[in-house]
Design brief:
The protein is an alpha/beta fold. It is built from 11 helices and 12 strands.
């Protein structure tokens, strides 16, 4: 039973983990130290989805996908298998137990760092190593996505496949798009998200455009030659299972250093967000700058003469702490000195 933030009884934990029971996540406007276009009546907000249960946005589609498993299938499922080394399998490892599934198997590639393996094992995930490509195409018969599909056909096993599962997009339609609309409403000009499975940007984007066809949906992918945890590269986004192209108006590629640098700036403001959030803010600012240079900013203004933007904070910086120190120069970090 939920009462003033209290979740009690035998199912108290499950009630807490259920998305609709937790209210809206915060939306926070960024200051001029980040938003250099503030004087141009550009407002940039972050929707802090690390404040959902389990601390990351993937808990929403994970719950939705589990909830959509037919009862007869769920009853006979003892092993859940998914290709992911990040938040999806972290969340499924926890949530699946509440749905009666004893084991979660995370298929990862050999390049996944040891600290991420430990996080998954801490949550109780079993790890399986696939030696296929680290970013496989969704429908090709090679790599971890295909491996998960094959294992999911075994008796007592099930593969949700976040790359094609309708619950992925559906969760963002309800919980991201629906909340953003109620929080910012008709004032919203631009919705920005990174593209990983494309569930967030497509689901939320569809909802927002249904409410106001003038809202722009902008995406960002990893620039070729770069690496950022979570999203996909600018080439591989064209090989996804969710059709994002009908919803997304523009995509801007972001490099590793700029994603981590903006994330660091946000962390030092007190917003403990990960590099995929820094990636979005960087891409958003880059696209706004492009419009400004072309004297096209006015095309983005709402009826109040403002350009109201929102990007999605997907998780925290905590799983990636070592990465900040390897990606960014030492000058960004205070030195350690003996007294």
């Amino acid at each position: 039973m939920k009462n003033k933030g209290i979740f009690e009884g035998e199912n108290g934990v499950l009630d807490f983990l259920t998305p609709q029971n937790n209210g809206f996540t915060p939306i926070v406007e960024l200051p001029s130290s980040i938003n250099f276009l503030k004087k141009e009546k550009v407002k940039i907000f972050l929707k802090l989805n690390q404040f959902v249960p389990l601390g990351n946005i993937k808990s929403l589609p994970s719950f939705e996908m589990l909830q959509s498993i037919p009862k007869d299938v769920l009853k006979n499922t003892k092993n859940l298998v998914e290709y992911s080394s990040g938040n999806t399998v972290l969340d499924l490892a926890v949530l699946s137990r509440h749905f009666g599934i004893k084991n979660l198997h995370a298929i990862i590639t050999p390049d996944v760092p040891e600290n991420k393996k430990r996080i998954l094992r801490l949550a109780g995930a079993n790890i399986l190593i696939s030696h296929g490509p680290p970013s496989p195409a969704v429908f090709e018969k090679v790599g971890g996505i295909y491996d998960a599909e094959i294992l999911g056909q075994k008796k007592g096993w099930h593969n949700l496949n976040q790359y094609t599962n309708i619950g992925n997009k559906k969760a963002s339609y309800k919980y991201i798009g629906g909340e953003v609309w109620q929080q910012l409403g008709k004032n919203l000009s631009i919705f920005m998200a990174s593209i990983g499975t494309a569930g967030t940007i497509t689901g939320a984007g569809e909802y927002l455009k249904k409410k106001n066809k003038n809202i722009k949906v902008w995406g960002t992918a990893i620039k070729a030659g770069s690496s950022i945890p979570g999203p996909r590269g600018e080439v591989m986004i064209h090989k996804l299972g969710i059709d994002w192209k009908k919803t997304v108006d523009e995509v801007f590629p972001t490099d590793t250093k700029n994603a981590f640098k903006i994330s660091l700036d946000l962390i030092r403001l007190g917003l403990f967000v990960g590099p995929s959030t820094g990636m979005q803010v960087y891409a958003l600012l880059a696209l706004l700058k492009k419009y400004k240079n072309k004297n096209q900013l006015n095309n983005l203004r709402n009826k109040n003469g403002e350009i109201v933007c929102v990007a999605i904070a997907c998780d925290t910086m905590f799983p990636y702490i070592d990465d900040y120190f390897s990606v960014l120069p030492a000058k960004f970090f205070p030195k350690i000195k003996d007294l």
